[in-house]
Amino acid sequence: MLLLQLLVNGILLGGLYVLIAQSLNLIFGVMGIVNLAHGGFIVLAGLFTYWFATTSGLSPLFVLPLAFVAMGLAGALIERFLVEPLMLRERRADLASLMLTFGLSFVLVQLALNLWGSDFVSVPYLQSSYRFRGLNFDAALSISGVFAAVISASLYVWLNYTLSGKSLLAASQSPTGALSCGIDVGRVRMVAFGIGVGLAAAAGVLVIVVLALAPQSANDFTLLAFVIIALGGLGNYLGVVAASLLLGLAQSVAGYFWGGNAEYVLPYLLLLLVMVARPQRFRQSP
Amino acid sequence: MTAEEKTDALARAAARFRGAHKSRIAAVAAGLAAALLLALIALTGSGYTLQFSTDILAAVTLAYGWNLISGFTGYLSFGQVSFYGIGAYATSILVLRAGMPWYFAVCCAGLLGALAALVLGPIMLRLRGILFALGMLGLARILEVVFNNWNYAGASLGLSLPPALTPVSVYAGMALLALLGFLLNAFFAHSGFGLDAMSLNEDETAAVALGVPATRVKVIAFALSALLPAAAGGLVAWNRSYLDPSSAFDPTLDLETIVFVLFGGVGTLWGPLFGATVLMLVAEEFLVYLPHFELALYGLVVIATVLAFPGGIVGIFNRFGYLRRPIILAPAILPAGEPPQKRPPRADEAPVLEVKDLEVRFEGLTALDGVSLALKRGETVAIIGANGAGKTTLFNTIAGFVPPSRGEIRFFGRDVTRLPTFRRAQLGMARSFQIPRSMPMLSVWENVVLPARHGKERQRAVEHTAWVLHVSGLAPMWRDRAGRLPPGHQRQLEFARVLALAPEIAFLDEVMAGMTVEEREVVRAAIRRLPEFGVAAVVLVEHVISAVADLADRMVVLDFGRKIAEDTPQRVLRDPAVVRAYLGEPR
Questions:
Q1: Residue A107 — very low, low, confident or very high, per pLDDT cuts 50/70/90?
Q2: Three-state SS for B403?
Q3: Residues B231, B372: one domain?
């Protein structure tokens, strides 16, 4: 029964992770760059949600659409004016944009620090839990896990079954090919970055109802998302779902048996383990 | 070129060299004067000035450390703070618990950091680009957790360090470390080893094909770049008389280091020094007014530098002809050069190349299926076949880029099947790439001296390089940046780099693709001359059969990874199996 309970918690946490990782994966898949400011967006949206929920007393979920749209627009603008020039100019755009988003991440962290301070905060939301056949479904975790999974699934459907989504996939698989099919690759990159950042913000809203957040945890989320992508396969959408669930489970088990430290380092240990054991997972075309 | 033009060109080259030399001496003198001035100000000023000077020197040291691996070698690291933390803890524990004198402990910590990098390097540096950067970011977080829970090291409360060092000794120690950092960076900017490192930054795959021992170079660069922060970490910890995991592995330290190097000029000798000094002074003046915006401002500096002036301060100087890196191993004037010494063939000589029953599989697809091939001295063999027949895979396997699942490759009777690519290149197996892969930010000279350097003494390498530049027609533009060459010259450079390895066997991958008939004739003439350049055997992969039919002694035809014919060109082209492979079954 205990193991089953851990399984439930792990899967719910994994559902949340899917969204955290998928938003980074979308940008990586289309543009070949890692957005190091990813965790910054998550933290910023999460802390805004905290501020909104505690001052207005309304449900934090109201922030979800607002955060998605506002941050998505901000992301599109960042792509257009900061990242796009590098994509067009640099021979090693992946490394140049890594630098750029590294700088951006500290701007976001400072913003969050100045607005909301450096304390870890969490939204006291839905403290109850649902019981079903002797299993506890933590209400907040269930809602955020399910929301995150639904958003990720809609992303998957949009990408694979609509024309606009497919043009995005096309641009990720072959920019030149997409260009010659009349797809405006520059605009696709802007849309992808915008949606990626918007989804990161949505993830931030869902994270703060479950976990305590502080501006300094930004990098942890970036790395968490990256570990999941690395485990699931770069640009592989279904692989990322599997890896998210796996990591959620592993963390919930490790956290129960060996405590919070184990839960915290697990993603990093996995990252190093994969690097040592299966470096071909990371092999990029030479 | 007339004799007059020649002397004129030589005079200009000499003048340019003298100019470069003069500005270098001036720069070194200015640097020394500035350092002396700083030392005077620091030592005669108040305690506050001394502390601030020490902080600047620490920033310079960290910046120089980061520049070695991430600037010159091109492996971006967001986790050099790992070594800083390791060094800080090592120094503290050695002094506190083992009673070691502080200077000895700092040296030990530096070596320990380098050792840690030597152990981690082969693992971490297998990853290229983004992955290495993120791997290092993760490493710093793991170490923070480890030290948070390690009671011997004070766990999360940290260690309180009794005052053992005077501020002046910290200052002196840090000044020595900054000087060491400068010297290491100067070594990278002026030596053949530095050229190897920079070639990895430009194009690692091509560098390996040119005989650069990539793994060794990277790991050494990584170890040297870890030594500096590890040694500096101990000094800073004692200076603050306090050490805990969150300050030892603070990610903002990496941010500051990266800001300084980027702003000064990444991958340059003077960039880290300028960037750290200027930004520290500016921050000291202005952050008083904006106390809570340090991170954001540094972040914005990174963004602005990457977008608007990627070369940093040194890049701006370069634009006006100052502080340019001298061309590595280049003489003042291009000498006439010497061709390589011919190795006399032995009577009982084994074939130059022997490929036996080679098989390569890519996840279910058999790219090569039992291909055998032998080349004697003096032979030229053309490999033809439709797209996807396995021609380039055969090249990649023989050169060592693709491991075969079965079979054997012998070079003069020596089994090289498991030999790393760079060793094969050094032995004299040279390949060209289908699309020229010159190193665009390096000069033409450096592109050629890079492969010519390995296994030769310096003077021989210089003479050989000069000879290659003359015979390949690149002598007039030998100091130009390779990235500026027009496409025709890029192809000549690709060819020159093959010659620079002084190869016994040359593999030329579609060197004539997309060329006009006239251009093709130039290349064909060059290929015919290869034997007189000391090349014992030539293998050509070509699409344009007419271009190689009269060059090759034999033709090998591949179809779906299998050898379907091997004979003289005339017979092969009449072979019904070959005709079928190219044109399909008659109906």
A1: very high
A2: coil
A3: no
Q: Cα–Cα distance between B484 and A261 in angstroms, integer? A: 53
B360 closest CA partner among B409, B406, B408, B424: B406
Contact of A181 with chain B, judged by CB distance below 8 Å, is answered with no
Cβ–Cβ below 8 Å for A99 and B258: yes
**Beta bridge partner(s), residue B187:** none
Q: At B368, which amino acid appears?
A: L
Q: Residue B138 is part of which domain span? A: 50-319
Q: Which of B319, B345, B366 is the last residue of a domain?
A: B319
* Containing structural domain, residue A15: 2-110+138-282
Same domain, B486 and B369: yes
Nearest CA in chain A to B201: A92
CB atoms within 10 A of CB B525: 9
Instruction: Judge whether B2 lies within some domain.
Output: no
Say whether both B251 and B122 belong to one domain. yes
Q: What confidence tens digit (pLDDT) does each residue in A4-18 have?
A: 888 888 888 898 999
Q: How many domains does chain B fold into? A: 2
Please, which residues have CB within 8 angstroms of residue B556's CB and are 6 or more apart in sequence?
B373, B381, B382, B383, B384, B563, B565, B566
CB pair distance less than 8 Å for A102 and B148: no
B428 domain-assigned = yes
Find the CATH number of the domain harbouring B490. Answer: 3.40.50.300
ipTM: 0.88
CA angle B329, B420, B125 (to 5 degrees): 75
Tell me whether strands B505-509 and B429-431 are parallel, antiparallel or unpaired. parallel
Residue B566 included in any domain: yes
Q: Which chain B residues are closer than 8 Å to A255 by Cβ?
A: none
Give A198-254 pLDDT, tens digit per residue. 999 999 999 988 888 999 899 889 989 988 988 887 777 788 889 999 999 999 888
Q: Beta strands of A151-274 (E only): which ranges?
A: none
B544 with B569: CB under 8 angstroms?
no
Interface membership of B302 toward A (CB under 8 Å): yes
Do B374 and B232 share a structural domain? no
Same domain for B285 and B359: no
Spatial separation of the C-alpha atoms in residues B473 and B463, rounded to whole Å: 16
Q: Percent of chain B having pLDDT more than 90? A: 52
Q: Of B7, B286, B456, nearest to B468 (Cα)?
A: B456
* Residue B383 phi, psi dihedral angles, 5° rounding: -110, 120
In angstroms, the CA B117 to CA B123 distance is 10
Are both B275 and B370 inside the same structural domain?
no
A258 CA: distance to closest CA in chain B (Å) = 13
User: Is residue B277 domain-shared with residue B387, that is, in the same domain?
Assistant: no
Tokens in use for A127? Answer: 């403290």
Domain count within chain A = 1
Q: Are A261 and B205 inside 8 Å of each other by CB?
A: no
Residue B4 counted as domain residue = no
